[in-house]
């Protein structure tokens, strides 16, 4: 990981602007992505006998908000891209907050689960411990966090207009444990392929 702290305002502005510029194409291109494996991974570690309050962190256009609502839960979406927030709100699947990942304002102990699918890797390493601490604090005790990120060798920087960090499992585990989480499970995606063809690292964590 880079030892230098990037210009955080530039990281946010550049990444959000890149997503905004392709918002309609992104929605169309991801609408039918099957992430049921990830949804199931979060839900199997949470109570199954009642509706759950779930924060969809980086909800994008709202695909997974609709999934959680259809399963009887109470999702709240969060995204920094105004165009995505408008799309997600239009889905009618739940409340949607427009917040920059680097300037979060989350209520304490408000959620049973946090679903961070392909979102946390955009948080620079220098501030990721703070952001993970905020997600830990917005979970209720016993709540669970799901995260899926493109894996790598802990490199960090700009790629095709967006800032990212490509964590390996040992680094990701150390970061989450330092934030107070306990590991529940981790796996690589897409399922059923050789490891070199599985670019995504998924993991589930408990707030004790």
UniProtKB/TrEMBL annotation:
Pfam families assigned = Methyltransf_25
| Organism annotation | Bordetella genomosp. 1
**Protein name as catalogued:** SAM-dependent methyltransferase
Q: Name one GO molecular function term.
A: methyltransferase activity
The record's annotation in InterPro entries points to: Methyltransf_25 (IPR041698), SAM-dependent_MTases_sf (IPR029063)
- What are the record keywords, sorted? Methyltransferase, Transferase
Query: Methyltransferase domain: which residues?
Result: 54-143
Q: Name one GO biological process term.
A: methylation
| Keyword flag Cytoplasm | no
Q: Which CDD domains match?
A: AdoMet_MTases
């Amino acid at each position: 990981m880079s030892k230098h702290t990037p210009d955080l305002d530039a990281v946010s502005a550049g990444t959000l602007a890149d997503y905004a510029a392709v918002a309609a194409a992104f929605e169309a291109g991801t609408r039918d992505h099957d992430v049921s494996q990830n949804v199931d991974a979060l839900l199997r570690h949470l109570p199954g006998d009642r509706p759950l309050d779930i924060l969809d962190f980086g909800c994008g256009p709202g695909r997974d908000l609709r999934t959680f609502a259809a399963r009887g839960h109470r999702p709240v979406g969060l995204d920094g891209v105004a165009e995505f927030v408008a799309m997600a709100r239009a889905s009618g699947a739940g409340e949607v907050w427009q917040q920059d990942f680097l300037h979060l304002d989350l209520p304490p102990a408000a959620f049973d689960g946090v679903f961070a699918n392909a979102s946390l890797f955009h948080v620079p390493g220098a501030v990721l411990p703070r952001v993970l601490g905020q997600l830990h604090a917005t979970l209720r005790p016993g709540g669970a966090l799901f995260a899926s990120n493109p894996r790598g060798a802990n490199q960090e920087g700009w790629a095709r207009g967006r800032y990212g960090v490509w964590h390996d499992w040992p680094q990701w585990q150390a970061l989450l444990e330092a934030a107070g989480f306990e590991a529940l499970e981790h796996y690589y995606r897409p399922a059923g392929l050789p490891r070199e063809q599985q670019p995504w690292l998924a993991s589930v964590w408990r707030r004790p």
